[in-house]
Every structure is written in C-alpha cells, then in structure tokens.
Design a protein that fits this description.
The protein has 395 residues and is an alpha/beta fold. The chain is built from 10 helices and 20 strands. Helix 9 packs across helix 10. The protein starts with a strand and ends with a strand.
C-alpha cells in the first residue's frame, strides 16, 4: 500500500535539497489522500519528483523527515537507526562504561530520528516522543532498542504525556512499555552517583546534557566557595564537592529538588558538612545574600520556548548574569548557560556582554560550552544546538 503523497509548492523543495529534516505547512500545495496524524507520507516536489519520507503532523512543522531515500519505515529501518545511535555512543566511550551508565542514546534530528528522545539510566531506557508519528511507533522502537542493546536494558519507560503535541485521539500516559522497574534508581556519571526518578523528575529524570560541563567545574573547584543556582538535584554541586571545594551552596525554588540534592551529596560524601541546600528563588537569593563566592553556576530553565518570548528572555539573562557578577569575588569564575533553543549563541553572548558592561568589571571568556557529543547536532539542522554556555574569568 502506497503512502499518502505530500506535494510541495513550486520552489519550496530547496530546504529538503539541503537535507533540512522539517517541512513547514506553508510549503505544502496538497496532500493526497489526507493522512492521519503521525502517518508515514512520501514528499514530492511540484514536478512530481520524490524527495523524502517522513511523519505527517497537523502543526506548523507538517512533516518530520525520516529518510531522504525511498525505503520502508519498518522494523528493519528502526533497528538500523538504533544500531547507528548505539555505535556512535560506543565511539564516544559511553557504552559500555563502568564509570558512566547514564547517557543519551537517541537525540532526535541529531540521530536522524526527529521527534524521538531516548535516555539510558543504567538498565532502564526512558523514551520521550515529541511527535505523534514517533508515539505511534513507540512499541516497534522499544523492541529495536531491546534487540540492539542485547540484554543490557531490562525496561523501557515511555514518558511522553508532557511532550506529545496535537494528541487528537491519543491520550498518552507515562508507563513502562517493556518490563518494569522502580520509579527511580541510582545511576552513575564519571563515578558520581545520583538518584534519578524517571517518573517524577524533570525531562527524562536528569539533565544529562550538562555532564561534561559539570566535569569541567570539578577541575576548577579545589579550595573554592561555589554557588550552584537553579541547582535542581545538585549535579554541579556533587562535582564541585568531589573537586575539593571549600564550600558549596545549592539554591533552587523547589523544596523537593533541594531535598534530592542533599540526598545526592550524602550518597557520594557520607557525612560531609560543607554543603548547604537553600529553597529560594535564584533572583531573590542573589538580591538578598550578603556574601560573595569564588565560583557561581547559572543554569536556569529555558527563559524562552517561542520566538515571541525572545526579547523578554534576553532581558532576563542580562539581569541574572548582572546579579551574579555582583556576587563574584575578584578572580572568580562564572559558569553561565542558556538551554533556550530560540536563543542562539550570538544573542546569548550579547546578553552576557551587556551584563558585564553594566558591571564595569574586567571579564574574559575562558571556555565556550555546549551540549555533549551524545546530544549530536545534525549539521543540516542547526536548531538542534540548543545548549550554550560560557565560563568567564572576572577580575
């Protein structure tokens, strides 16, 4: 049975010829016959030339491309893509790795599987579908993961209820679709241990994308006082403590996050007394605390998820960085990040530049940071480069 055909308007095939994996609704002339949400479709230019195959959607991103070749989207296809993703993680030294059993296995467009995220937590895989097409295929994908990992994964948890757009007839619930496990577990990253809840935690349970940046912080932490803001479950704090920091303060507005941060510190450093968890809004803490730090980490949630919020987001980044600069000791370091996809590197740097200029302090960039290699960026899809960071030396 043939797939429904998506026919583009004249000249609207150029982005596909550059291998961009999205087709926007405004580029489409007609669809014959009208597919269901998430159904596989074939895409043709206005002259009837085949271009690609992908998942159809009812939003502004009308098709997410799965292949630029004529091929069936079947069990063999999914297994091949999952094996490709695993092979990359093997090259990166992440699988197998006795010191790190937490990593991203599938990163959407970066692994040529747009709309799909899969994170590994020891023997549990957590899947998030960001498109109905991926959600419809979740059981087939789960089987491919189990087969490709050959017994190293016992359970797969589908956590798509908060990420699936245009749900239509689908009412997703978070649940195990392969095997079962406790709602949380203890996972390892560079030898540090963390309690992770794939059921109640943010994202898939842990912010895996900051792994290398946390490791970098450890190298600078010896003898330093460290403030970890928006600290969530204390990832940066644990690394700073292992780096022999003099003192670490973790600030988050969530009491449950601070409780988990304290548990993670205890899990790694039984009885250590130089960590303090504070439940408070970061802006309020920076405004009211009457002391300075040698290192400050700013890792806020996305201030902008849509372009119409970009201006306000950039103002927020400027205010946040200025407040932190005022609390840094001379010669201190500022680790500052943005995970907002609509805030590109230039906009983020300009916001930080504005804060530095207002502060009047001498500032140098010593590191430019981004997401780790298990969060690959498809070169034809620069939108996938969402995590930006700078390490600043402040005199």
């Amino acid at each position: 049975m043939e797939n429904p055909k998506v026919i583009l308007k004249p000249e609207k095939e150029q982005s596909l010829l550059r291998y961009h994996p999205w087709i926007f609704s405004g580029s489409i002339k007609q669809v014959l016959p009208l597919p269901e949400e998430g159904q596989v479709v074939d895409v043709f230019d206005a002259n009837g030339k085949f271009l690609a195959t992908g998942h159809f959607a009812g939003g502004s991103i009308a098709v997410r491309i799965l292949s630029f070749q004529r091929e069936s989207i079947d069990d063999t296809f999914w297994l091949k893509r999952i094996i490709n993703a695993i092979n990359l993680r093997k090259v990166l030294g992440l699988f197998p790795n006795p010191q790190t059993n937490t990593f991203r296995l599938v990163h959407g467009e970066g692994d040529n599987l747009p709309g799909l995220i899969v994170d590994i937590y020891n023997n549990v895989a957590v899947m998030q579908c960001h498109s109905v097409g991926m959600y419809r295929s979740r059981h087939t994908i789960a089987n491919a993961i189990i087969n490709a990992l050959n017994g190293t994964i016992d359970a797969i948890y589908d956590k798509s209820s908060g990420t699936l757009p245009l749900r239509g007839k689908y009412q997703p619930k978070d649940e195990f679709i392969v095997g079962s496990a406790n709602e949380s577990g203890v996972c390892m990253e560079y030898g540090n241990r963390f309690k992770v809840s794939w059921e109640s935690g943010q994202k898939t349970g842990f912010f895996i994308d900051q792994r290398e940046n946390r490791y970098l912080l450890e190298k600078y932490s010896a003898g330093k006082s460290v403030l970890n803001t928006f600290g969530y479950t204390g990832g940066f704090s644990v690394y700073a403590l292992r780096g022999n920091s003099k003192e670490v303060v973790t600030v988050d507005s969530s009491a449950s996050a601070i409780e988990l941060a304290n548990q993670n510190v205890e899990l790694n450093f039984n009885g250590m007394s130089n960590h303090t968890g504070i439940v408070m809004d970061t802006f309020e803490y920076l405004r009211t605390c009457n002391r300075n730090f040698d290192i400050i980490v700013l890792d806020p949630p996305a201030f902008a998820k849509h372009n119409d919020a970009l201006k306000n987001a950039l103002q927020a980044y400027k205010r946040l960085n200025l407040a932190a600069l005022k609390k840094l000791n001379p010669g201190g370091l500022l680790f500052t990040f943005s995970c907002s996809q609509v805030v590109d590197k230039i906009n983020f740097r300009n916001a930080v530049f504005s804060a530095c200029a207002i502060s009047g302090r001498s500032v140098s960039i010593i590191h430019q940071l981004n997401q780790p290699a298990d969060h690959p960026v498809n070169i034809y899809h620069p939108e996938g480069e969402y995590l930006k960071g700078l390490v600043l030396k402040v005199l």
